[in-house]
Amino acid sequence: MTHDALVWPSMLLGILLAVPSLPGTIELLLLTLGGILPPRREDGADHAVPIERIAVLVPAHDEAEGIAQTVASLRACDSGDAGFEVVVIADNCTDNTAELARSAGARVLERRDPQRRGKGFALDFAFRSLLKEPFDGFIVVDADTRVELNLVTELRRLMRRGAAAIQCCYRLDNPEHSLRARLRGIAWMAFNVLRLRGRERWRLSVGLLGNGFGLTRETLLEEPYEATSVVEDMEYHLRLVAAGRRVVFAPNTGVWSDAPYTREAGAGQRARWEGGRFRMVLDWTPVLLRRVMSGEHRLIEPLLELLLLPLAFHVLLLLVALLPPFEPTRTYAFLGLALVAVHVLAAIRIGGGGWRDLLALATAPFYILWKLTILRAIGRASRNDAAWVRTERNEAEQKD
């Protein structure tokens, strides 16, 4: 066989293996550079939007173990120059979540609909109920969360400056519990801090993380929270950006929650998130691509973000692209892997990590192999009829 006869198959195979990771590599380059650069100064213009009364919503399904602590953390927040109310949505509960939330000082909305289960349905129910009252803004906090004291005042301040939707920092409270938790903490520093900071630097919509986000009354009236997938926050964000709205970053406040302690709970949560994300890729890629091709260039970054796979799978794609003996795609794959390393190191630096996080990176190959073991579960969670499943909280896990 001649040399030319070997070159063409190698070139074709190399290109075919490199192309799937290319959108993700472009997105990582964009967000890493934006995250490293100094943040922009806030625009001096103040729109003076009249945001006064705020409802802090806590969707809760069988959260008796920790709901009182979350309500206490929220009620301790600074109210600023206007009031706020903590509202717990007791969604299809079979325990005494509602009673404990009331005893802790929260208002409780009880919902029973076994056929329509999940956080998206619970939030839609609460928003529709509370929009009948004179609330100007809403903040959503998960039921296993502690919050910074300035959460309400900071999100209200940004709403008053004209922000239609806001996402604050969302961090892990227990990264020191195990190596797995520490690796997840690094991933969260990348996904929930560095990337949001990068998007904000480029004045892009930063995304919604499902915990610690705010929406104005006007936003919900224009774009109702009709997101019912297992990743309802991502689904709703895609609806927002498709409608021309931007989520801004609130880096000066944050929310904290624990990573699951057990491997089984962590695997279930990860499969649900990533399966739901793959569902969004299938549903939304044609929509965004068609609109980008029609000239809506503002949707290019949301499309790139959608095509950026979870980092473990992105690394696997780059490793596979190293195999064909075609130097251009091999060079691309090496540069892509170097970019991933810079991205992770920048996330640790920007996210406030330390030397223990650097040591934990040595176990990353085992984490990538573990991710391969849950591919079947991810596939099940990506189906249109995938059911929402509650992640077991650590209090119950400790008892077991």
Oligomer: single chain
Low-confidence stretches: 396-400
Structural class: alpha/beta
Strand content: 5-15%
Tell me the major beta sheet.
Answer: 8 strands, mixed
Structural notes for this entry:
The structure is a single chain. This protein is α/β, with parallel strands linked by helices. It is 53% helix and 12% strand. The protein has 17 helices and eight strands. The chain has an eight-stranded mixed beta sheet with strand order 3-2-1-4-7-6-8-5, with helices on both faces. α1 runs antiparallel to α12, α9 (232-242) packs parallel to α10 (263-293) and α10 (263-293) runs antiparallel to α11. The longest helix has 31 residues, at 263-293.
What key attributes describe this structure?
400 residues, alpha/beta, globular
Topology:
Blueprint: H1 3-18, H2 22-36, E1 54-60, H3 67-75, E2 84-91, H4 97-103, E3 107-111, H5 119-130, E4 137-140, E5 145-147, H6 151-160, E6 165-172, H7 179-201, E7 213-216, H8 217-222, H9 232-242, E8 247-257, H10 263-293, H11 300-307, H12 311-321, H13 327-350, H14 355-360, H15 364-373, H16 375-381, H17 394-399
Helix pairs in contact: 1-12, 1-13, 2-7, 2-11, 2-13, 7-13, 9-10, 10-11, 10-16, 12-13
